[in-house]
Every structure is written in C-alpha cells, then in structure tokens.
Amino acid sequence: MSLENDQEPFRFSRGCITQMSFSHDSQYLATADDTLSVTVYKRSLRNEERVWERLGGLRSHYKLIRTV
User: Fold this and answer.
1) Cα(61)–Cα(46) distance, rounded to whole angstroms?
2) Known InterPro entries for this protein (predicted)?
3) Residue-number span of the structural domain to which 52 is assigned
4) Are the beta carbons of 54 and 41 closer than 8 angstroms?
5) How confident is the model at residue 5 (pLDDT cuts 50, 70, 90)?
6) Residue 66 falls within a domain, yes or no?
C-alpha cells in the first residue's frame, strides 16, 4: 500500500474501509469495512516485492465496527 501512483490498488475489501490499525512493528494490518467485516493482513516478501498477504477475515458483526 502506498501513496505513489505506480502501486497496485488495495482490493481485498468488498466495502469501503472505515477503520485501519497497524501492529506496533508494522508487520500486521487490521481493517474494518462498511460491510461489517474485519480482515487481517501480514506484510510479506513475494518476488522480491513487499506485499500485504490476507490472513483471514470475519463478517459476524451486526452493528458498525467502531475500532480495530
């Protein structure tokens, strides 16, 4: 994920991401979206390029997620 224009878009969420939180060492990322889902990603090296690998997601909430 980058602010540079030459990066691939981050397309793992079906809805708009409403919350994001990084681990203290920036190796993990948790997101919440407007479809009431939470997803966790891990920073990994693939073909000598740093990418976010999706570890898993859960859609079991019935109200808006306030924080991750």
Assistant:
1) 32
2) WD40/YVTN_repeat-like_dom_sf, WD40_repeat_dom_sf
3) 1-56
4) yes
5) low
6) no
Question: Does residue 62 belong to any structural domain of this protein?
Answer: no
CA 47/CA 44 separation, integer angstroms = 10
Dist CA 12 CA 62 (whole Å): 21
Task: Give the chain's mean pLDDT.
Answer: 84
Diameter over CA atoms, the chain: 40
The 3-state secondary structure of 14-64, one letter per residue: CCCEEEEEECCCCCEEEEEECCCCEEEEEEEEECCEEEEEEEEEECCCCCC
User: What's the number of domains the chain is made of?
Assistant: 1
- In this structure, is residue 65 part of a structural domain? no
Query: 3-class DSSP state for residue 8?
Result: coil
